[in-house]
Amino acid sequence: MRLSSNPNPPRGRLRALRDPVTITLDGAEVQAERGEPLAAAFVAAGHMTIARSPKFHRPRGPSCLRGACDGCLARVDGAPNVMTCLVPAGEGTEVVTQNRLGPREADVLRMTDWFFPDGINHHELFAGVPGIQNVMQAFARKVAGLGKLPSEAEAARPARRRRVDVVVIGAGASGMAVAGRLARHVHVEVLEDHLEPGGSVAALGPAEARAFASIRSAFDEAVSAKKVVLRTRTTAGGMYGRDLLVVGPEGAEVLEADAIVFACGAHDGALAFEGNDVPGVMSARAGGWLLARGVLVGDSIAVVVPEGGGPFGASFARAIGEACEAAGLAESERPGVTIAHGEPVRVRGSTRTKSVVVRTAEGEQTIEADAVLVDAPRSPAYELPAQAAADLVHEPRGYVVRTGDGGRIAPGVFAAGEVRGVLLDAKAITADADAVAAAVLASRVARSLP
Ligand code: FES
To answer: What is the pTM of this model?
Structure first.
């Protein structure tokens, strides 16, 4: 990967590290910005293969940067199966890749994939064959699965039960907008499983993110004024009646909220095409999120925008030019970026992408690329609202939460933003947040009446 002419920017970055720390990957030192996701540091350093698939040992790399794929799983400081995109880098953080025999990039167990090109039914393989059955089982148990038990057993910690006024799940555009409005009237807690708020907006280039600036600043002011409690790295794990199970750095809690607002956003679109799991294939949203933090995903980047996709691919293609300009990179030092509108057909590469074939209106186009950003249509993250008995409607983009006026799902339970089909558009998100916040406040008044 090329270097910028900035003063001493590390490999794969557009700017010098402000607060550098040293982490390790399988014993090798990697420089990281303190607090950035471990996976971001690996991408910047060109380490794209982080994990292996459990059965065929196919190489896996970070794809979503938001805890929604298995491409970045590794053992972190003795704890197995950690999503390294959700763990902040600290001095001495030790990351060890799992589920491999031999080096990370040349796992010998990858042979399983070559010997069984049509798949393997491990449940019945040699089952019932005396002698061989036992050997096969012992072998399968050794090579399959993910990770080994933690180095240290953690003591059980009881979950606290707590009452809150209003809990908003998700600190993306919609969650920030709803929380900003509610904070004028009630105490609000916002749960966000990522390391920072912003959601998809944080993956847009400056030109597109500008439209959301007032939402962001109102939210930041409410957090600074302690009218909103923002809890990052905190996952809303399940709804059980009106109990919300929450897991964060301090452990598990059960929240009883007067009102719950699901602002869970949308998942990256995952398209089925040959080689879609080759390390280097990422969502355009992930690529944009990394770029906003000065991390380059490759030297030659293909951005593929299928029908209905956007806005992250176009935003990335625009922003990377500006970012390279701002970083003082000469033309020859800048990553090459090719944007193609069409369907990805196949990606070539093993532990890193080499090329992608895209079917466009003009025919098939082959692009040499060590990173492929796919900007497929996103699907609403409906899973938690579904646990709260929300009605779902199936649309081409996936399941959309059907709500009543003001995003109402049930008494005291609401949905806002992309999860209920609102587009990622600042005006639409703002209008939706106004309606949802009004409905939440009205429901609280109604519930307090005798
Ligand atoms: S879960 Fe970490 S990159 Fe997808």
So the answer is: 0.93
- Find residue 302's DSSP bridge partners: 338, 372
CA distance 174 to 262: 9
Tokens read off for 279 = 């390390």
Residue 71 in contact with ligand 1 by CB distance below 6 A: yes
DSSP 69-131: SSTTEEEETTEEEEEGGGSB--TT-EEE--S-SS-GGG-GGGHHHHH-TT---TTTTTTT-TT
How many C-beta atoms lie closer than 10 Å to residue 70's C-beta? 17
**Ligand 1 within 6 A of 62 CB?**
yes
Domain limits for position 133: 20-143
Q: Phi and psi dihedrals of 78, rounded to 5? A: 90, -5
Q: How remote is the CA of residue 66 from the centroid of ligand 1, in Å?
A: 5
- pLDDT exceeds cutoff 70 at 450: no
165 and 222 assigned to the same domain: yes
Tell me if 64 CB under 6 Å of ligand 1: yes
What value does the CA radius of gyration of the chain take, rounded to a whole number of Å?
23
The pLDDT of residue 5: 47
Alpha-carbon span 337 to 322, nearest angstrom: 13
Q: How far is Cα 67 from Cα 62, in angstroms, rounded to an integer?
A: 9
Q: Which atom of ligand 1 is nearest to the CA of 86?
A: 2
- Among 16-30, 46-60, 101-115, 387-401, name the one with the lowest average pLDDT: 101-115
Quick one: 393 and 255 in the same domain? yes
CATH of residue 333's domain is: 3.50.50
CA of 381 to the centre of ligand 1 (A): 16
**Structurally, how many domains does the chain consist of?**
3
Residue with CA closest to ligand 1 atom 1: 67
Q: Which residues pair with 380 in a beta bridge?
A: 266
Specify whether the CB–CB gap between 267 and 357 falls below 8 A. no
Are 359 and 419 found together in one domain? no
Where in 215-264 does DSSP place strands (E)? 228-231, 235-240, 243-248, 251-262
331 Cα: distance to centroid of ligand 1 (angstroms)? 31
